[in-house]
TrEMBL record, chains A, B:
<keyword id="KW-0210">Decarboxylase</keyword>
<dbReference type="GO" id="GO:0030170">
    <property type="term" value="F:pyridoxal phosphate binding"/>
</dbReference>
<dbReference type="GO" id="GO:0006520">
    <property type="term" value="P:amino acid metabolic process"/>
</dbReference>
<dbReference type="GO" id="GO:0016831">
    <property type="term" value="F:carboxy-lyase activity"/>
</dbReference>
<dbReference type="InterPro" id="IPR010977">
    <property type="entry name" value="Aromatic_deC"/>
</dbReference>
<dbReference type="Pfam" id="PF00282">
    <property type="entry name" value="Pyridoxal_deC"/>
</dbReference>
<dbReference type="GO" id="GO:1901162">
    <property type="term" value="P:primary amino compound biosynthetic process"/>
</dbReference>
<comment type="similarity">
    <text>Belongs to the group II decarboxylase family.</text>
</comment>
<dbReference type="InterPro" id="IPR015421">
    <property type="entry name" value="PyrdxlP-dep_Trfase_major"/>
</dbReference>
<keyword id="KW-0663">Pyridoxal phosphate</keyword>
<dbReference type="InterPro" id="IPR015424">
    <property type="entry name" value="PyrdxlP-dep_Trfase"/>
</dbReference>
<protein>
    <recommendedName>
        <fullName>Aromatic-L-amino-acid decarboxylase</fullName>
    </recommendedName>
</protein>
<dbReference type="GO" id="GO:0019752">
    <property type="term" value="P:carboxylic acid metabolic process"/>
</dbReference>
<dbReference type="InterPro" id="IPR015422">
    <property type="entry name" value="PyrdxlP-dep_Trfase_small"/>
</dbReference>
<dbReference type="InterPro" id="IPR021115">
    <property type="entry name" value="Pyridoxal-P_BS"/>
</dbReference>
<keyword id="KW-0456">Lyase</keyword>
<dbReference type="GO" id="GO:0046189">
    <property type="term" value="P:phenol-containing compound biosynthetic process"/>
</dbReference>
């Protein structure tokens, strides 16, 4: 056809088959076809992930070698990207979705959350102010108020109580670290205003079991590292913070002319799931006007069940609490929920009011502008997936999900108990079992525990990680990956037993 | 059937139809069915969004009234959530995806990006360290190195140059504000180490056109607000910063015993798309060892076209640059790319090394642990969607996309020029047109410009926002929403003309 190709294409690219049609990034055929291919991939992935090595064996830089160091000039069918995803990306993934994943904490997930996140990606609203995306802001506030009820948080943390607006506030952030950072900034500014002290006179507190990201957040907020107090813990409190030691530390600082400013208490530490006594921490903190934040990133989700709620006792006396449904409430990343008792204290440190964002709704004071509760300005439609999880599954299924994981963890704990080669290191609070080889016929030092872990992990049939508790290397077995069933726990246990038996032949 | 329902269901809930099956959040049937329903919704939404009012008219609190103040106890079919989404959420959305959206900056999007984000949600990896998700880290590094080539950034910003690792580094963050914050923390720590000064002696700089989130990030990082320098700009530099004034401000601070620490230069300000002269800013900054960051959040994407690349001239002399493909490179939120010339300076301020994240790969030093370049620890599979965009569309289509938007903006600019009731306020650099009613037959004060905007917006047929430039209220017409075509620009212009004609009848 001699005429084809003779008209210059709008893009200037003329192919052998004539001009290329104009580029439409949201062409309906492409939207449907790319997303259907993605759904097929996901369905296949979930069916086959169980049989893949949990921990891959790729080498640093491998992906560049496989996919090329430079971007392509010309477009390619979407199938090319999907083919490369299957061939090159999947084999290099540590499969958090695998039912044989027992490392860190699980990143739980659900069909409703993924669908909600997909719709958020497609609507692609940017809800910095209420007016910029009213339903996105309202949905986030609603989902957070619903979750507050599941957690039986005091009404003082809710955005709205009854028909009127409360003093509390909440926001969905990307990570716990961001929740710490924004509350640290608020506490810092309040302490400086109240005391007249400089930033380098402010002191912050946490137990030695608190996630390392807390002191990183303190550094980010400009606190002086010489004023970071890490309170030692031990087995006598199951590694929860001792309020007497916390009091002594705050008293010593106050005597030395420093200003105790912020304490982070944890419900379910990353290392061993230790629980700080929130009520006692708050009592001590109140003596010094110290901001109390509760980090319940993982274990907060369990507190939707009445039998676990007591771990939050005392929360009515704290200033803020954060927990992450992306850990244990079936909501894919990112989803960290931060609640504060006095939203104005947060916005005083975080609000901005540039001309180009001014609008009548903000001026009215009747609305929440979520940019004033976070680090950045822009934000996704973050509440949708969390709402879809609660709307579709209901409290009943969410509680069943927590109880099932805890029951499976208990089953694993019982198996470990029954094997005299192992010991449980700390009492199990939730769905994490901390255990190690004890001195009974085999060497029981850190090295042999590390070897057991390495040997298990290199089979590709399970992946568990370690920590150090009380100076000893401990293996962490975290139950709850969303495709996990009892049979996977049993297989992992058999693998551990077989691995140690094989090791014993040589020790 | 008398036996059905007699066995207690695992969840304890027995329905009229017998026991409920155990709850599986990633059941294959649900995954496929929920996601297919979501895809159908998206396809319908894109087809119908053009006819919806761009700016909704809902009242604060409306969603709670429609969806209920408390979470449901019992599960519901996914169709219920989808029905409520259509009935209650969609009417409350400010439709960033509408082709009639001209407010703020567009949040551009594409089928490839949405599919990539969907797959990331489903795989739900948490790539804090390389080992925790090697392919996710490698993909992020690869996508960033590809994008660096599209932008013709100096090799010093790339993770890998040739086969070996460079000193540069990059990371995908949620927002520009986070990019500012982490680089501010690095610059702050370097300045304090080098000078021995305290944090309250450090000074930071930006033009008065810089996004307000910059000084918010400075406050977050603990800088003293009395040391924030906002350099005035004017029409004589088209609102770009004057290096002479910047030099004078730094000199005055240095003379006063302060330590000039960080300057933020912008390529394409939010207000009017002004461009700071990067090379000249870097020359001034070098005299005082000041960290130079370039915020190219919006306009950075245009620099993939050779004809716009000159706006980045001098970037080889800066310390860091960030730009957001979620604004203008067809990649849905969140996607802000931060490049730094010396990755170690960033990780020195941001790294953590808790026992439970220790692994052989990190110890080897051969890998990038992305947690050490961001605020938090956890992170999604962020690189996938950006890679899919570049892989599928190729540089050719991405450049066509930029050029098409700029051509449409120029068309609008020409229409405004040809109407003697309006004036163009600042020269158009990219796809944002800043205009206002000028004194020609109609009142031309801020109030009438504001009224024009309000009258246009309340039709629901277009949405534009305002700013203040040079003390005057200015209307911003931002072209580029991903479903936009020439006809939408023409319709919006007709609407603006009709609206002002109607207004003239009464003034």
């Amino acid at each position: 056809h001699p005429q084809m190709g003779s008209i210059p294409a709008r893009s200037g690219l003329v192919t052998a088959f004539g001009e290329r049609p104009p580029f439409h990034p949201l062409n309906d055929d492409d939207v449907r076809s790319y997303l259907h291919k993605a759904v097929d991939f996901i369905s296949d992935y979930y069916k086959s992930v169980e049989s893949m090595p949990v921990l891959p064996s790729v080498k640093p830089g491998y992906l560049r070698d496989e996919l090329g160091a430079s971007p392509p000039v010309h477009p390619a069918p979407f199938d090319v990207a999907m083919k490369e995803l299957r061939a090159s990306v999947v084999p290099g993934i540590t499969h958090w979705a695998s039912p044989n994943f027992f490392a860190f904490f699980p990143a739980t997930n659900s069909a409703a959350a993924i669908a909600g996140d997909l719709i958020a990606s497609a609507m692609n609203t940017v809800g910095f102010t209420w007016q910029a995306a009213p339903a996105a802001t309202e949905m986030e506030v609603l989902a957070l108020d619903w979750l507050a009820q599941l957690l039986r948080l005091p009404r003082s943390f809710m955005n709205r109580t009854g028909a009127s607006r409360g003093t509390g506030g909440s926001v969905i952030l990307g990570t716990t670290s961001e929740a710490m950072l924004v509350t640290l900034a608020a506490a810092r500014d309040i302490a400086m205003r109240r005391s007249g002290a400089g930033i380098s006179d402010l002191a912050v507190y946490a137990s030695d079991q608190t996630h390392s990201t807390f002191f990183k957040a303190c550094r980010l907020a400009g606190f002086d590292p010489t004023n970071f107090r890490s309170i030692p813990t031990g087995p006598e409190t199951d590694y929860g913070v001792d309020p007497v030691k916390l009091l002594a530390a705050m008293q010593a600082d106050a005597m030395a002319g420093l200003v105790p400013t912020y304490v982070c208490a944890t419900v379910g530490t990353t290392s061993s799931n230790a629980v700080d006594p929130i009520g006692d921490v708050a009592k001590v903190a109140a003596m010094f006007n110290v901001w109390v934040h509760v980090d319940a990133a993982y274990a907060g989700s369990a507190c939707i069940c009445p039998e676990f709620r007591h771990h939050l006792n005392g929360v009515e006396h704290v200033d803020s609490i954060s927990m992450s449904p992306h850990k244990w409430l079936l909501t894919c990343l990112d989803c960290t929920c931060l609640y504060v008792r006095d939203a104005r204290r947060l916005s005083q440190s975080l609000e901005t009011d540039p001309e180009y964002l001014k609008n009548d709704a903000s001026v009215s004071g009747d609305v929440t502008d979520l940019k004033d509760m976070q680090v950045g300005v822009g934000r996704r439609f973050r509440g949708l997936k969390l709402w879809m999880v609660m709307r579709t599954y209901g409290t009943a299924n969410l509680q069943e999900h927590i109880r099932r994981d805890v029951a499976m963890a208990k089953m694993f704990e019982d198996l470990v108990h029954a094997d005299n080669r192992f010991e449980i290191v700390v009492p199990r609070n939730f769905a994490l079992v901390c255990f190690r080889i004890k001195a009974a016929g085999v060497r029981a030092d850190d090295e042999v525990n590390r070897l057991l872990m390495a040997n298990v992990n290199k089979t590709g049939k399970a992946y568990l990680t370690h920590t150090v508790v009380g100076g000893k290397l401990v293996l962490r077995f975290a139950v709850g990956s969303s495709l996990q069933e009892e049979k996977h726990i049993l297989s992992a246990w058999e693998l551990i037993r077989k691995t140690i038996s094989d090791m014993m032949k040589y020790v």
